[in-house]
Amino acid sequence: MVDEQGDKILEARQSYFEKQRLVESARIAFQFLAAVLRNASLYPQQHPILQSSAEKLQAKIQELLAERNEVPFYLVRGELFFETTPVPIDQSFSVAIEQFTDKDIGGIIFKPNVAVEEIGRFADMIVNEEIMPSTQEGLSVATAKRGIFHISIQHALLVDKKIGSVIKAREKKASSVFRDTINALKDVVQAVYLEKASSMRQMNSVVQNMVDYVLDNRDALIGLTSIKMYDEYTFAHSINTSILAVSLGTYLSMTKPQLAALGMAATMHDIGKVAIPKEIINKPGRLTEEEWEYVRRHPIAGAVFLSKIPSITKLAMVVAYEHHQHGQNAYPVPEALHRRHPFSQIISLADSYEAITASRVYYKSKIPPHEAIRILVKNRGVTSNPVLLKAFINMVGIFPVGTLLKLDTGEIGLVMHQTSDLMRPRVLILTRFDGSEKEDSKIVSLADRTNGKYRRSISGTIDPEEARINLRPYFE
Amino acid sequence: MVKDIKQEESFPPEVLETLRNMVLAIRAVKLYPANNPAYATAVKKSFAALNKFLQSHDEYRLEIHKNYFIYENMPFKKDAEFNLPIVQDLFVKGIREMIFLPGLSEEELLEFYQALALTIEEQEMKNGIASILWEKSVAHIRITETGLDEVIKTQTPRRWGEQSPGGADAASKTSDAETEKRQAGVPHRTLVLFDLIDDPLRFGENIVELAKQTLTEGESLEDRLFALYKEAGRKIDREQPEQRETLYEGLAKSVLSLDPAYRNGFIADKLYGDLDVDLSKEQPLSEENLPGPLHEIQSGRFSDAWTIQQIAALLKKAAAKPPEPVKPTGQLAYLEAKPVDSDIISIAAEITQYSSEEMNELRAITEANLEWDTVRAATRTLISLIPHIKNPAHIGQGEKTSTVFAGVITQMENMLDFLLKKKDYPYATLIVHALQMPTETEYRAKVSEALSKASARTVLMDAIRELRSHVMDSPEYRAIFQYLSMFERETTEVLLKLLAEEKERKARIFYLDLAKEISKNQTALLGRYLSDDRWYLVRNIVNIMAESKEDQAMAYFRKAADHKNVRIRQEIIHSLQSIGGKKAVSFLARFLSDEEEEVQKTALQAFARFPGISEDEAVFLINFLNSRPLSKKEQNLTLMAIGVLGNIGGRQARDYLKKYTKVRWWRPRKLQEELKTAAQRAIKEISWRMGDGG
C-alpha cells in the first residue's frame, strides 16, 4: 500500500528540500546585501567591516551562480522575490527594501565575475545617491559611470512589466486553486449523494496543487480564507480549514507528502456530514437534542466512508473520526488516555479558528480577528496541543492576512503578510477600497521605523462587512 | 448601470434644459405652497421643456444614481451640485428611473411633482409613488423603484370572486383595464402575487428580471432577490392572511425554480444565512466548545435538496423581520475601528517565544514517520469504529449495519495484512484483540473470516519463526508471543506440526517450550494427538498436556495409558507426576500393574517423587507388594517398592512392612534377608518421619 508510493514520495521530498534550500540561500544572500548597505551607510568604502560584508555577499552570489547565469532579486509590491520565488522578508532586511522602494528600484541582478569592490561601489551608490535616474537607461548609465558592470539595477516599472505579470498570473491562480478544490469536493459530495464510487484522483490532484501553492505563497491563499463565500460556505469551510492546516504544516516544515496528507485529511474532515439526514441539516430552525445527536455522529460516518476509499490517505479517516475529540463535549467520546493524532489536532485547531472567523463573517458576531486568537489562547490545550497552538498563531498572526486595520496615521491598511513581530504585519494601504490599490499602492511594514520610532502602528481593527468593503478583489 | 461615462458636453442643449427645468420644478413644488407663483411657473416651464422634447423624441428617460442623474448612460456632471439635493432625495425615496412619454399632460406632471414632494412616510402610507401615480391615472410617466412595495400587486383572481381584506378598496377601484394598463406601462416590473398559485415559475422569472433591473450599486443579485422576496412575504402577511400558506408555498416554489446560478447562493447565503444570524443570537459562540453547534450545521449543508416547506418556513421568518437600513459602501465614516486590548500585545510577545521542550515537541510532530503513523492511527480508528457501526443510528441512511461492518472489517484485514508483513505485532495484536471481542450473531461470520486469515498456518509459522529470532522477554518477543497467544488452538496445531517435522533438536526444544506456554489449555486438541504413532510427538504432547494440570488432561491420558509404546506410557507417568493430586496418584497406580517392568519401575519412581503425596496413597504400593511373588526375578522391583513405601508411607505402611522382618525357613533366605533389610530401613524412615522413634 504505502510501498508503491515510495519513489514518488522520495522524489517529492527531494524537490521540496531543494526548493527550501534555494529559498534559504536567497534569503541569506539578501541578508548579506542588507548588511552591506547598512555598513555602507556607517563606514567608508575601504573600511574592513564593509569589505568583509561585501566579501560574504560575493561568496554567496558565487554559490548561487553555480547553478544559474545571474542572481536576480526583485521587489514587487513590497514582496521580495528571488527569480520568481517569494523570499520571506524578515526584519533584518526591511531597511534595505525600504531604500530600494524609496528609490524606485525594483530589481538587483548580480552577474558572474562580480567583484567585492564593485559591490562596495554599488552600496555607496544606493546609500548616498539622493535621487536615482528615473529611467532604465539613466540607471544603466549611472552604474556604468561608477564602474559597476556586473550588477544591474532595474527600475521598478521595468520589473513590474518583466516579472509582475508572472507573479500576478500566480496570484490569479490562488483563486482558481481555491475554486478547483471546491469543485473537486463538490464532485465527491455529489458522488456520495448519488451513491456512486468516489474517485479521489481529482481530489488528490487539487490538494497537491493547493499544497504547492501554499508552499509558494501561503499568504495569498490565507487571504482568500477571509473572504465570504456567499453561496458555498459549506464547501469553503472545508477548503479554508485545509488551507490553514497546510499553512501550519509548511510553517512546521513538514515534508510535501505530509502536507498532502494533511491537506487531504482537512478537506475531507467533515465529509461525514453528508450522511446527516437532509431534513435535519436543512431544517429551517433550531435542532432538537435528538436531531443534534445525528450531527454529532458525522465523525463516525465520515470515517466509515473514508475507510472504504482505497486511493485516499488513511489519515483522512483518522482525522474525520478524531476531529471533534477535544473539549468537554468531545464526540465520539474518546477512550481514556486516548492521544489524538497530531494531524487531528492541527485540523481541529484550523477548524475551530475557521469557525470563529466565520461567526464574524456570517453571523455578524462582531468578533474581531485578534479576538479569535484570544479565544484560542484561552482554550489552549483543549482544541490542540498548546505548542501547536503557539505555532499556529505565529503562522497566522494576531492580525491574520485579510484583516482590515486602522492605523494611528489615520490610514486604513489591509494585512497582506506577517512579520516576526505579530503586532506589526505588512499592510497594503487602502485609499479607494475597490481593489485597485493592489496595482499601485505599496505594501508597508508596520515594523518600519524613522528615527527610532515606528512610522505606523495599529490603532484598531475594522470589520469589512460593517464598513461594506469588499476584500475579494484584493486577493483574487 | 453606467457603462460608458462620457463628458456631459456632448449632451444636447434640450436635454440639459429639460433636466434643469425639471429640477427647478421638483424643488419649487417641494418648497412652496401651491398658491405661490413660483410653484406654478416652475411646473409650467418644466412641462413646456418636456413637451417640446417629447415632440421630437420617443421618451425622456432619466436614471437616478445616488449623486447624479444619468441620461443615456451618461452622468450629468454639469450642475451636479445644484441637482444633488434633488437627486439624493429621489434616490432615498427609492426611485431609480423616470420615463416621460409623449402625450404627457401638465396635470400629470403636476401630480408627479406633488407625489415627489411627499415625505417618505406619506409615500409609504399611500403604498409608494407608483401607487399614487396609478391612482391618479398618470399614464405618461413611468418610474422604477428599488423596492417591491409598489410593484408587487395582490391582484385578486376573478375566478375566486373574493376580495382581500387589506386590498378591498384598491381592488374595487381597479378595473381590469387599469390593471392591464398598469402592467403594460411597466413591463416586467409588476409581479402579481396570485401568480404564485398559478405559475410560481413565471413569478420566479419575473422576480429575477425585476431584481436585475432594480439592482443598486454594491448590491448583489442575491441581496436584491432577498429584499424583493421579503417584501413579497410582508405583502402576503399583511394583505392575504387567509391565503398565507398557499402563497408562501408558491413563493417557495418560485425560489426553487430560480436559475441555479442565483438560487443556490440565495438560499444558502440569504435564507439560511438569515436563519443562522438568528440562531447565533440564541446560541452564542461558546469558547469552550469549538466549533460550536451552529457552525457544525452551517458547514454541513452539503445538500441542495431543499424542500418547499423548508424554503417557505425560511421566507416566512425573513419576512417577519423589519427591513434593515442600507449603508453606503466604502465610506470612511463607517470605518469604525475596534481598539486592540493591551493583553493582545502581551499574548503577541509571549507567543513568539518557544522553550526548548516546545521546540522538541514540534520537531517530534514533524519528524514522525508518516507511513507508520498512518498505519497505526488508522488501526486505532478502525478499532474504535467497531462498536459504533453496529448501531444503525450511527451510520448513513439506507446503509445496512452488516454491510458497513463488513467494510470496516475488510479494512482491518487489509491493515492486519500490512502490519504482519511489516512485522508490527503490537498493532496486529490490537486488531486481533478487537476482532475477538464478543459480537452479535449477524456479524460473527465476517469476524470469523477475518480471524481465520489472521491465524492462517503461514501467518503463524512466520510469527513463530520471527519469535525464534528474538531474545526471550525482549519487547519484540513479548509482542509476537502475545499475537500467538491470541490464537491458542491454531498456534498449537502449527506447533504440533513443527514438533513432528522439525529435525533440529534445538528448534524442537524451542517449539516444545513455546507449546507448553501457549497450548497448555488446548487439552482437547492435544488429546486427539495422543493416539498418534509417532512416539516423539505424543511424548511432546503429553509433556505439554502435563502443563495444564487439568483433570481433563487425565481423561485423555487414560485413553493413552494402553499405548503400545512403552515410552509413551512412561511419558504419561511423568506427566501425572507434573499434574499431581489424588486423581493422578490413583491413575498412576494402574501403571504398577503394567505388563512392562520398565513402566512399573517408572511408576514406582513417580510415587517416590510425587509432589504432595499422602500416606493414604501408600495403599497402592501395599497392594502392589502383596501381588509380588518372592523370586529373584521380581526382587529388584519389590525392594524398590519397599523403599518407596518407606518414602511415603505412614503407620499402616509401617505395620505392613513388619511382615518382611520375619524370615521364613521354607523360603529363600537370601531374598528374605534383602527384603528384611529394606523393610527395616523403610520402617525406620517412616518412624523417623512420624517422630515416634519407632
Helix content of chain A: 55-70%
Strand content of chain A: 5-15%
The residue-averaged pLDDT of chain B reads 82
Q: What gross morphology of chain B would you assign?
A: rod-shaped
Instruction: Tell me the CATH architecture of the largest domain in chain A.
Output: Orthogonal Bundle
Q: Structural class, judged by helices and strands of chain A?
A: alpha+beta
Query: What fraction strand of chain B?
Result: under 5%
CATH topology call of the largest domain in chain A: Hypothetical protein af1432
Kindly state the number of beta strands of chain B: 8
Classified by CATH, the class of the largest domain in chain A is: Mainly Alpha
Poorly predicted regions of chain B are 1-8, 155-188, 328-333
Strand order of the largest sheet of chain A: 3-2-1-4-5
Rg value of chain B: 53 Å
Strand order of the largest sheet of chain B: 3-2-1-4-5
SSE layout and pairing:
The complex is a heterodimer of chains A (476) and B (694).
Chain A: H1 6-42, H2 48-65, E1 71-76, E2 79-82, E3 85-87, H3 94-102, E4 105-110, H4 116-128, H5 136-145, E5 151-155, H6 156-193, H7 201-225, H8 233-251, H9 256-267, H10 278-281, H11 289-295, H12 298-307, H13 314-322, H14 342-363, H15 369-378, H16 386-396, E6 404-407, E7 412-417, E8 426-430, H17 437-440, E9 443-445, E10 449-450, E11 453-454, E12 458-462, H18 472-475
Antiparallel strand pairs in A: 1-2, 1-4, 2-3, 4-5, 6-7, 6-12, 7-8, 8-9, 10-11
Chain B: H1 13-31, H2 37-56, E1 60-64, E2 69-71, E3 74-75, H3 80-92, E4 95-100, H4 106-117, H5 120-125, H6 129-135, E5 141-145, E6 152-153, H7 168-173, H8 176-185, E7 191-192, H9 195-198, H10 200-213, H11 221-239, H12 244-256, H13 260-282, H14 293-298, H15 308-319, E8 337-338, H16 342-351, H17 356-367, H18 370-389, H19 401-421, H20 425-435, H21 441-454, H22 457-468, H23 475-485, H24 488-501, H25 505-518, H26 523-528, H27 535-548, H28 551-560, H29 566-579, H30 582-590, H31 597-609, H32 618-626, H33 632-648, H34 651-657, H35 669-690
Parallel strand pairs in B: 6-7
Antiparallel strand pairs in B: 1-2, 1-4, 2-3, 4-5
Helix pairs in contact in B: 1-2, 1-4, 10-11, 10-12, 11-12, 11-13, 11-15, 12-15, 13-15, 18-19, 18-20, 19-20, 19-21, 20-23, 22-23, 24-25, 25-27, 27-29, 28-29, 29-30, 29-31, 31-33, 32-33, 33-35, 34-35
